[in-house]
Amino acid sequence: MPVANTISALAKRIIPCLDIKDGRTVKGTNFVELRDAGDPVELAARYALEGADELVFLDITATVERRKTLADLVKRIAHRINIPFTVGGGIRSVEDVSVLLGSGADKVSINTAAFQNPELIAGIAKAAGSQCVVLAIDTRLEDDGEWYVYLNGGRTKTDAKCFEWAKKAVDLGAGEILLTSMNHDGTKAGFALDITRRLSDALPIPVIASGGGGNMQHFVDVFQDAHADAALAASIFHFKEIAIPDLKQHLKGYGIPVRI
């Protein structure tokens, strides 16, 4: 295999996230206090130009409002980007997935519906391939020292432990884990290195770290210390606190393989 391909295959991914509410990009802290962050179509186009490796679109109130993801908005974004595109929010069936893939999504992110009906993971993997199935886990570290799974956009606590649920999802056919620490979300204080490392080291599929990215060193830490395959962030990119090309050059300086 050529050297370039080897480097590319090992490259760590930088993924901006568009949290969508009422057709606009929003961002909060610890899953609350949402503020407007701009037009999702324009942001998506900007990220594709800046060298983002992928883009994630999460319709954050679709599940709670019991409606489907905004397929028309997905289609408009897909027309403006040339990078892998993951879409989540309100997906409850293989048919929902077909609509989103038909609208331009490359992968789908499932969360609450997958927890309530784990066979949904297997069904989507069978219909579209495991590479299309991103299992999103919203997790919170509780006083007992355990990381628990939360549903419905962080509103509903379960008794399930993050690590056990992730392992089960892999067995069912999930192709990737999007791990969001609710304790760290929006704080810009750094990623949850311990639980990220635990999943990254134990699971045979990629783990995307989410929640807490605030400076370039946080990304170095999550790749070097927690062994994440990708790091996802929102507000630092939306509000131009960190430029993706600058971040990638910084990571490269630490010997972390990235696509420049």
TrEMBL record:
Reactions the enzyme catalyzes: 5-[(5-phospho-1-deoxy-D-ribulos-1-ylimino)methylamino]-1-(5-phospho-beta-D-ribosyl)imidazole-4-carboxamide + L-glutamine = D-erythro-1-(imidazol-4-yl)glycerol 3-phosphate + 5-amino-1-(5-phospho-beta-D-ribosyl)imidazole-4-carboxamide + L-glutamate + H(+)
CDD domains: HisF
InterPro entries: Aldolase_TIM, His_biosynth, HisF, IGPS_HisA/HisF, RibuloseP-bd_barrel
Localization: Cytoplasm
Keyword Phosphoprotein: no
Principal cellular location given in the protein's record: cytoplasm
GO cellular component, one term: cytoplasm
Organism domain of life: Bacteria
Biological process annotations from GO: L-histidine biosynthetic process
Record EC number: 4.3.2.10
Keyword set, alphabetical order: Amino-acid biosynthesis, Cytoplasm, Histidine biosynthesis, Lyase
One Pfam family cited in the UniProt record for this chain: His_biosynth
A single GO molecular function term of this UniProt record: imidazoleglycerol-phosphate synthase activity
Active site: D19, D138
Name of the gene: hisF
Family: Belongs to the HisA/HisF family.
Statement: the UniProt record of this protein carries the keyword ATP-binding: no
Native species: Cnuella takakiae
Subunit structure: Heterodimer of HisH and HisF.
Gene3D superfamilies named in the record: Aldolase class I (3.20.20.70)
Lineage start: Bacteria, Pseudomonadati, Bacteroidota, Chitinophagia, Chitinophagales
Pathway(s) this gene product operates in, as recorded in its UniProt entry: Amino-acid biosynthesis; L-histidine biosynthesis; L-histidine from 5-phospho-alpha-D-ribose 1-diphosphate: step 5/9
Primary role: IGPS catalyzes the conversion of PRFAR and glutamine to IGP, AICAR and glutamate. The HisF subunit catalyzes the cyclization activity that produces IGP and AICAR from PRFAR using the ammonia provided by the HisH subunit.
Protein name as catalogued: Imidazole glycerol phosphate synthase subunit HisF
